[in-house]
Specification:
The complex is a heterotetramer of chains A (about 325), B (about 375), C (about 350) and D (about 350). Chain A has about 325 residues and is mainly α. Chain A has 14 helices and 2 strands, in the order ααααββαααααααααα. The longest helix of chain A is centred in the middle third of the chain and has 38 residues. Chain B starts with a helix and ends in a 5-residue tail after the last helix. The chains are: A mainly alpha (about 325), B alpha+beta (about 375), C alpha/beta (about 350), D alpha/beta (about 350).
Chain lengths: ~325, ~375, ~350, ~350
């Protein structure tokens, strides 16, 4: 039953992914001037000699002399068959090698932020709802509003500024200067930890605020439901009852929101890491965008979109697992 | 119930107006509910004041946004005094500023001199065109009282929130930036409403192929993370483009993502309303299609549209300031809250000139107010529950 | 409180439930007395908003936080044994151990809408076993066996398989059967049925009513049956209490109620029900006006504004007394104020 | 009695309404819910025809199909208009249909959902008048007040909004709206189901009074046999989209010919403790209209079912004058009616 459902969902993803890649290709092509001329200008301004055979090679490899739709097909073909995302003229490297250097950090930071978001939002939401109108509830409602109205870049700036004032240390980057080029070691990890935590918390906070609110509202709603009264009428202990019925029901929709929390976290990661100049995709893509290094930017967009789509799929599957109404086809009523 | 109706009907006693609850219209009920939301009741006047001030920023700001005080770079906010050193009440005044170079660090800063510069309301200052027109005026809401004959821009200066590295008054720039940032979100929301209502409405009303296409388009846009997409689209705008054009294109880009939410709400409401008994009743009464849509369906989902739209404003403001801050959105010389914050990108600059962070306060306050207002509206949206 | 007689299991004494709301004090239940006897069914009948559901929720102490309960609810028997010292449920802590052992164990409840009353994400077996493990058999395996038997007893075919199904996989009638199985699995001494058939179709309603009656006789359970349908009352109950605006206006055995009703409201209600066996195409004798909202009401008989027999200057001046006009037949009306002994 | 009504105001022939069941990405149609299947019936001028059946049997859909609130899939609905001419409603152009709506109206089940909460009573009741361009504003106002008196509302409450009224009063507003254009045919869709017993009686009385006064024809949809027995001249019984029996009320209650009708009649609890009914218990649940059993849709629950019932859909036959039934075995069965009707 479940396997069927997953297969069906996977099949539905294919047209969506194709459409996403087309849209992103269009976005890449939007800036005036084509890739080759930008590349040649870049080379010339940096005083390097323009290698004609390399140009011809590039043209052939990416079909740059062909009409637009063929260029798209080349792009897709290279990605699917050879994992070749194109070249970044700015770095004069393949996009793939850049991605290999920086994408793992980006993804791990985003996922860790997701975990932190949940770890904070769900318990706080539960306590807020079960202790409605208490001091705790009011505090976190206020916190939620502040979190929602403070842009992530400002949060990053402010926390770095405050920490600088307090400790005299500038916590930008993922490592202090001494460790930037050092190989990975325990000391480097220890050096990295507070910075990493800072980054993760900053990214998580803006998402946490919204999620606390929705968790609280959802649980308040569930607490009124008839089945809670049924359970109470059975003589179930209040605490057990709370966990078994309404909290589980209120968490279900939270599970299904990975699909829209993830894009937010990816965007947040991008901004925060740009502000804090972390060695992740964020600053790289920002530079690529300002310099219109579009293969790099486009590849990033494509990858995060695919990740989002996969995230949505996973959350749908999780929801189908926790909510039997979906697994067995259609919510009745 | 309007007075007009009362008059048109001669015998007033046929109209029962004893109890206001019974004759309260939808909007009255919504207002009563809205009034209960205290935060929203504070937020609305704050927003109105902010908009008023920013719309007339030349008048309310003591200086012009691009006006440079060459001798006063990176000045800290000037302190306003009421009593002089001897304890005599003078009224609001500031002391003149003298440049001071630290003999050890050689860092330049400004210290207060003994010169008393009086402040006042409705004072003469730099000339500006009223609402950008050719009509020139030089009265400012508040500022230093210039001695008769003295031109602005001299040494009688007053900087409420300090100056930046080029010697421009931060407060004046914030008000001017507010005009851009605060209007930007409204323009963007207007685009959102146009696109979202049209597509959502078509999708819900026509159904079939149109519905499928719009739904797939929404899925498509939802699957690309918003901020990177904004950034990519914003980066694609050529740098030679005029500021005005860029302003509108940027707001369009913002709404390209925002409309999906509104379209969903519209479609969902349309679909559910179509099956509502009172709408079927209206059709059974012989109402035309247009009358059913505009007289019966629109008023009942208008409130949801308003809620959805207000809910999307904070995101727009945050998005614009973020992009501008990163240098991908509106660019100097256009002044917006985001571009103003570009000046404090590093810890060093923040430590040296923390007053450049003031725009952040305005961002937070305005977004907070919109959040509260949206919250209040959501509570009031369905007074019949 | 002394037990009135051997067969009384539960007694309500001047029970009031008031809701303290923003707009004022809502007197949902305003002084209710009745007793539950072993093996008998008490039907509580009234129109919507008369407080019949709140009354039974008070027995369960499952009222919202702003609900204030006063009076006494005496429970004389627990787990089949007579209590030396009767428990006053009204004074119990609503989340304490004592009330929780009574809920589901000694007193069970069937709710109106079986779809909403079951959690949609747990199997019905899981939810029924919860009761059994709490009150009968803590061992999971044995509890499951009891659960299957309980489902079989309420006429669900294939109970071994149904146990692992989710509520939405069952039809409305099946769900209500499962609900009954859950309520009766712990062999309670009192079963409260709150409009158990209102959401069901007539033919399914007939099945469910039959089932409740059979199980009641098998287990010698006492039943409190709440409904607005006088037809169902006639089928199901031994004793009847008619409620209006939070008060019981008339209580007697079912035969007396239908053949010798005394309170003007009861009589009007009986006349206004559309029974099929009356003169064809006749007009209904209706009660004028509507039930008032039980908030900030004047001190008068709640029915006096709609009553054809109301006496001016009497009925609108104070609450009528509860009078026992015949043994076991109580009427709350000024007409009978001096025609019998005043009851509690 | 019977000869009094001979002039049908509504004639329904082979009416069908199938709702497609779609599934998958491209919304392919995988089946149909046969909400209304092949219905034939007529309603005479001035009479009340009741439709009874359990939830999901298609009685509401049938009512709406007749008024063209839902477009039927196929079949015809003939309406006898003011000029005493039969017109076909299903193929009528929209503008003409709008005009015809003056003569046929609807009263809804839920008095809370059927009134637009954003409009005053005046606007709600005068809506049909405005749509058909009848009367000027001042005249309309006076007329609405008159109507409010007719349905038992206080005309001083003209400017109030629906939220200021109780359920019963709201239903009266709905009735006033339906009657504003002086229609000749009204569909009452469970018009009293949401009301309390005492209020229900008031509204039923009002409906009967109005019928007498305005010579209305009712299609009265209900699940409550008690109500139906009082108000209707003839009764149609529906089961999962099919009409299974239709006859004069007294005849149907006294001697039903379809086993389902018999079970329905016996299932109704009677308010008489000395005479508890002997019920005919139906096994199982109502069939799923998306997956109907073969042959007669009622056969899995029918205690008289024979082999033929599993294979063939029974024909709609007039077994006695005016008594229609769709059952293979109807003529061989001696079924019990409701107590009080049986002699």
């Amino acid at each position: 039953m479940l396997l069927n459902y997953i297969l069906k969902r996977l099949l539905q993803l294919i047209p969506l992914l194709i459409a996403v890649s087309i849209l992103i290709f269009i976005i890449i092509q939007l800036p005036p001037g084509d890739y080759l001329t930008t590349y040649i200008i870049q080379l010339e301004t940096s005083g390097l000699e323009v290698n004609q055979s390399e140009i011809i090679n590039l043209t052939k490899q990416y079909g740059l002399d062909k009409p637009m739709y063929q260029q798209y097909l080349y792009w897709m073909k290279n990605i699917i068959t050879k994992l070749d995302f194109g070249r970044s003229f700015q770095w004069n490297q393949t996009v793939l090698s850049l991605l290999q250097q920086r994408l793992p950090a980006t993804i791990s930071i985003s996922l860790l932020s997701l975990v932190v978001t949940w770890a904070i939002a769900i318990p706080v939401g539960i306590v807020s709802a079960t202790h409605q109108y208490s001091g705790f509830d009011y505090f976190f409602q206020f916190f939620g509003f502040i979190g929602m109205s403070c842009p992530a870049f400002l949060l990053a700036l402010a926390s770095v500024f405050i920490l600088f004032k307090l400790t005299g240390q500038s916590l930008t980057g993922l490592n202090s200067a001494a460790f930037v080029n050092a190989p990975m070691s325990w000391a480097k990890f220890v050096d990295m930890l507070p910075r990493l935590l800072l980054v993760i918390f900053i990214i998580a906070i803006s998402q946490t605020a919204g999620m606390i609110r929705s968790m609280r509202a959802m649980l308040l709603d569930e607490l009124q439901k008839q089945y809670v009264i049924t359970a109470r009428a059975k003589g179930v202990k209040e605490k057990k009852l709370l966990w078994k019925y309404p909290i589980r029901m209120a968490i279900n929709p939270q599970v299904s929101t990975i699909g829209w929390v993830l894009p937010g976290l990816i965007g947040g990661e991008m901004i925060v890491s740009t502000v804090l100049s972390l060695p992740t995709m964020g600053p790289l893509v920002k530079r690529a965008l300002t310099n219109q290094d579009m293969y790099l930017a486009g590849s990033y967009l494509l990858i995060v979109s695919v990740l989002t789509v996969i995230g949505t799929l996973i959350s749908d599957i999780l929801l189908a697992i926790v909510d039997p109404r979906i697994k067995f086809g259609g919510v009745s009523e | 119930m309007s007075d007009k109706k009362k008059k048109s009907n001669a015998n007033i006693d046929t109209v029962d107006s004893s109890s206001s609850y019974e004759v309260a219209s939808q909007y009255k009920l919504m207002w009563w509910k809205f009034k209960k939301h205290k935060a929203a009741m504070i937020a609305v006047p704050v927003l109105i004041i902010m908009y008023l001030i920013c719309m007339c920023c030349e008048f309310f700001a003591p200086a012009l946004p691009l006006e440079r005080y060459k001798d006063y770079k990176d000045t800290a906010p000037t302190r306003i005094h009421l009593w002089d050193d001897d304890g005599n009440f003078v009224g609001p005044f500031v002391y003149g500023l003298e440049r001071y170079t630290d003999p050890y660090t050689f860092r330049k800063s400004y210290v207060e001199s003994d010169q008393i510069i009086k402040l006042g309301f409705f004072v003469r200052g730099s000339e500006y065109g009223v609402f950008g027109s050719n009509l020139k005026w030089d009265v400012h809401f508040f500022g230093v009282k210039l001695p008769e004959g003295e031109e602005p821009g001299g040494h009688n200066v007053f900087f409420l929130m300090g100056t930046d590295s080029l010697g421009r008054d931060v407060f004046s720039r914030i008000l001017s930036g507010g005009r851009i940032s605060l209007s930007f979100c409204l323009v963007s929301v207007a685009f959102t409403v146009i696109i979202g209502l049209t597509l959502g409405g078509l999708s819900g009303y026509l159904g079939g192929v149109v519905d499928t296409i719009v739904q797939r388009a929404i899925d498509l846009i939802m699957s690309i993370p918003g901020i990177p997409m904004w950034m990519a689209l914003a980066a694609a705008l050529p740098s030679t483009m005029s500021n005005l054009k860029k302003y509108f294109l940027m707001s369009l880009i913002m709404s390209l993502i925002g409309w999906t939410g509104l379209a969903r709400v519209t479609r969902g409401k349309l679909l559910s309303l179509r099956e509502e008994d009172f709408v079927i009743a209206a059709r059974m009464c012989g109402s035309s299609h247009m009358r059913v849509i505009f007289k019966h369906m629109l008023p009942s989902f208008l409130s949801y549209i308003i809620v959805s739209v207000t809910g999307s404003i904070p995101g727009t403001i945050l998005g614009e300031t973020t992009l501008s801050f990163l240098g991908l959105g509106l660019q100097a010389p256009t002044v917006s809250w985001g571009t103003l914050l570009q000046d404090c990108q590093t810890v060093d600059s923040m430590a040296a000139t923390p007053w450049l962070m003031f725009p952040a306060l305005f961002i937070i306050v305005s977004v907070l107010c919109f959040c509260f207002m949206g919250d209040g509206l959501r509570d009031a949206a369905d007074p019949y529950k | 409180m002394k037990r009135p007689s051997e067969d009384v299991i539960l007694a309500m004494e001047d029970v009031k439930v008031h809701f303290d709301m923003d707009e004022g004090l809502l007197k949902a239940v305003d002084g209710v007395d009745f007793v539950i006897k072993k093996g008998r069914t008490l039907g509580i009948v009234g129109e919507s908003g008369c407080g019949k559901s709140v009354t039974t929720n008070a027995i369960f102490k499952i009222l919202p936080k702003y609900g204030l309960i006063s009076g006494n609810i005496w429970l004389y028997e627990k787990d089949g044994k007579e209590l030396e010292e009767p428990i006053n449920i009204a004074e119990l802590n609503p989340t304490g151990d004592v009330i929780r052992s009574i809920r589901g164990g000694n007193i069970s409840m069937i709710f109106q809408e079986p779809m909403k009353a079951f959690s949609p994400v747990h199997t019905i077996g899981n939810q029924i076993m919860e009761t059994i493990m709490l009150h009968v058999e803590p061992d999971k395996k044995k509890a499951r066996e009891i659960c299957v038997e309980a489902l079989r007893a309420v006429g669900i075919s294939n109970p071994e398989q149904r146990v692992d199904e989710y509520p939405h996989q069952l039809s409305g009638g099946m769900r209500q059967r499962a609900m009954i199985a859950m309520a009766l699995a712990s062999k309670p001494s009192i079963l409260i049925a709150d409009e158990p058939t209102t959401a069901l179709d007539v033919t399914i309603q007939a099945q469910v009513l039959d089932l409740i009656n059979n199980l009641k006789h098998e287990n010698n359970t006492s039943v409190i049956f709440i409904t607005h349908d006088l037809g169902v009352i006639a089928e199901m109950s031994d004793d009847v209490a008619v409620m209006y605006l939070g008060k019981i206006v008339e209580s007697c055995d079912v035969d007396t109620l239908f053949y010798n009703p005394q309170h003007p409201y009861t009589r009007a209600l009986l006349k206004s029900i559309p029974t099929a066996d009356k003169q064809h195409k006749g007009r209904f004798e209706s009660i004028r006006g509507t039930v008032p909202y039980a908030m900030n009401l004047p001190v008068q008989c709640g029915f006096c504004d709609r009553c054809d027999e109301a006496i001016k200057g009497v009925c609108d001046k104070g609450y009528p007394p509860n009078v026992e006009i015949e043994p076991g037949h109580f009427v709350r009306c000024f007409k009978f104020a001096d025609k019998g002994t005043e009851g509690k | 009695m019977e000869n009094k009504y001979t002039n049908p105001i509504i004639e329904v022939k082979n009416l069908k309404k199938y709702f497609p069941i779609t599934s998958g990405f491209f919304k392919k149609t995988v089946g149909y819910v046969k909400a209304v299947d092949n219905i034939d019936m007529y309603i005479n001028e001035g009479e009340t025809l009741a439709l009874v059946g359990e939830s999901g049997c298609g009685k509401t859909t049938l009512g709406r199909c007749i008024l063209q609130a839902i477009k039927p899939t196929s079949g015809s609905v003939l309406f006898n208009n003011k000029e005493n001419k039969q017109v076909e409603l299903t193929t009528m152009p929209y503008s003409q249909l709008r005009d015809t709506r003056r003569d046929m109206q609807m009263i809804f089940q839920d008095p809370y959902a059927s009134l637009d909460p954003r409009m005053t009573v005046l606007n709600i009741i005068s809506e049909p008048l405005i749509c058909h361009h009848l009367m000027g504003p001042a005249e309309r106002r006076e007329y609405v007040k008159e109507l409010m008196v007719t349905v038992g509302l206080n005309p001083r409450h003209l400017e109030r909004y629906p939220h200021a009224f109780s359920g019963g009063q709201r239903q009266r507003i709905g009735i006033a709206r339906a009657l504003a254009t002086k229609p000749r045919f009204v569909v009452c869709d469970e018009a009293v189901a949401a009301l309390d017993v005492s209020v229900q009686a008031q509204v039923l009385n009002l409906l009967m009074d109005l019928q007498e006064k305005m010579n209305l024809s009712y299609l009265f949809i209900s699940h409550d046999l008690g109500v139906v027995s009082h108000i209707s001249d003839r009764v149609g019984v529906m089961y999962v989209g099919h009409m299974v029996e239709l006859a004069d009320t007294v005849k149907l209650f006294a001697r039903p010919m379809h086993p389902y009708t018999e079970a329905l009649l016996s299932a109704k609890p009677v308010a008489d403790p000395r005479n508890k009914s002997r019920r005919i218990m139906l096994e199982g649940d109502v069939a799923n209209p998306a997956h109907l059993p073969s042959g007669c849709p009622f056969h899995p629950r029918c205690r008289y079912a024979k082999d033929i019932c599993k294979e063939q859909l029974p024909e709609w036959r007039e077994l006695e004058p005016g008594h229609y039934v769709a059952c293979h075995c109807a003529q061989d069965l001696q079924l019990h009616g409701m107590r009080g009707y049986e002699k």
